[in-house]
Task: structure prediction
Amino acid sequence: MSIAQFFENQEIFITGGSGFIGKGLIEKILRSCPNVAAIFVLMRPKKGKCIDERLQDILHSKLFERLREEQPQNLQKVHAIAGDCSQLGLGISEDDLLRLQNVNIIYHSAASVRFDDPLREAILMNTRGTYELIKIAETLKHLKVFMHVSTTYCYPNRHVVEEKFYPSYADWRTTIKLAETYSTESLNIFNLKYGDFQPNTYTFTKSLAEQIIKEYKDRLPLLIFRPSIVVSSIEDPVPGWVDNFNGPIGMLVACGIGIFRTSCAEPDIVSDFVPVDVVVRSMLIATYRKGTEEWNKNDPKVEVINCAASKICPITTGEVIEIGKRVIKDTPFEKTLWVPDGSITRCPVWNFIRFVTLHVLVAIFVDFALRFTNTKPFLLKLQRRIYAATLALHFFVNTEWDFKNDNFYALNSFVPDSEEHIFGFLQFRDLDYEQFFRSGIRGARVFLLNEPATCSQGALTRMQIYKVLHFLIKLIGSVLILRWIGRFLYAKFNATFV
Result:
């Protein structure tokens, strides 16, 4: 049986369908497994839009352009289910539960990925939400696969992470009870102590969710899938597709616009990130393999898959920055405010000095100038968000992990030869990073900044002007500093010999 044949007439339920992985998964299934019966997507109203309006916004986005051209009829197979993973029973109505009774495959990718979420909210969303979906899954008589999308950073205090379960930081039932009993303020008081001093609530609550999966392994056909940092696509559905500023692409966009110029990190750390189409392809292969093997309740196994790519084609954080600066200078954004010239330093003090001078003071000056043009100031507020993000990521950009991923590599061997070009992913092992980041930056330009795919002559001209001004400012600054040093030394010399 081929992978596409396995998905024929299957009904699929996806949580987190409006997220990065979720949208990529929906698009890939509809395009590469065209005979799928239906895809149900859990959604909640947001920003004044009902779930059907939000679903149509997704299906009419640029991501689905290829599908709309090749197989527009398949878009009718996607249906929104009203609900919320932070609610009991996921907030799904009785009528919608009946619509889900023939579901064969569940992808649980919904999670709050905000690192600064209060403990209570993170527990209800990431931990209790998993438990509530497990309870629903137990009522589905035709379920073949339940894939829980976790993260390779579930156990950040372990620098070698194998494809297996690890001891829990806390009891998941007690933790859910605490979140249901006490207020956000109360839980925040002992957040660090209760979470065993984890770097954030996201990794802590996702690790608890894995314990739930482990406990229910003899009741459901479960699978844990742990991607590392998910970044723009290599080729599916188009090169460079991305829908958020997370990971290295967001860092490169901020650097490319000229508002991110310093970071305290270890430049020689190997960054572990994986393209979204590799993630989606490996998820479908894992589903195919799990769904075609016989599940024995008496000898249940929950396979853990670390979807990490640093061993396939390693690259350091410093190399990412240098490639990004070189690419962006060649093809600048329309919204570029200054020359991309940021860098990484290991010294926290030097980073703070550079942040104050190159980020904060410049932002204050620009916002002050904007007031005279009747333009709403924005840069200082944006710099506060950048600073908060760098604080949240500090632990991760200064730590290197070794993610063992034999199970992940083995997935590619299950792809039939006739479908290697559709579902295989190891052909990407010889990745040209410069070309990859060119595609990623072009994707950020199109999908995030709503700019043309190629930069205009105006953007190139502005970049040349910025380069000249940047050089003059650095030259004048260097002269002033040398002059001050000269005066200081001359005064010291006179004071010594007078």
In short: The longest strand covers residues 38-43. The CA atoms of residues 157 and 198 lie 8 Å apart. The chain has two domains: 3-244+272-313+401-448, 317-397+453-497. DSSP finds 19 helices and 13 strands in the chain.
